[in-house]
Design goal:
- The protein is mostly beta strands.
- The chain has a single domain, classed as Roll (10 Kd Chaperonin, Protein Cpn10, Chain O), CATH 2.30.33.
- It is built from one helix and eight strands, in the order H-E-E-E-E-E-E-E-E.
- The protein is globular, with a radius of gyration of 16 Å.
């Protein structure tokens, strides 16, 4: 998979150990209610996790790979700016989930 097909950008950084660098989703700020009402990012709501795309991984990371969509806690993060873009630095153990890939038409996901 090359950069053109994956949409990933080569970063001037090499991650160490179990560190994961993620690119937070742009829509993490404002949200819409089910009725279509815009909820600004400044509104305090209950504890909410956020989605991001993996941009770089350390050599000891075993579960995620570049381009995966992951779920993390935005309150437990460190931000870093690279090439005028803000990324979030996490440990692999701070990731809560990896988005499942789409199931092909032939697979039902059931074992009979």
């Amino acid at each position: 998979m090359n950069e053109e097909t994956s949409g990933l950008v080569s970063l001037p950084i090499r991650m160490l150990h179990d560190r994961v660098l993620v690119d937070p989703d742009a829509d993490a700020g404002e949200r819409h209610s089910t009725g279509g009402i815009l909820i600004p990012a400044t509104v305090q709501m209950g504890h909410r996790l956020a989605w991001a795309r993996v941009a770089a991984v350390g050599s000891s990371v075993r579960t995620v790979k570049l381009g995966d969509r992951v779920l993390y806690d935005p309150q437990e993060r460190s931000e870093v700016e690279l090439q005028a873009k803000t990324y979030v630095l996490l440990r692999e153990r701070d990731l809560h989930a990896i988005a499942a890939e789409r199931i092909s038409e032939a697979e039902t996901g059931l074992y009979l």
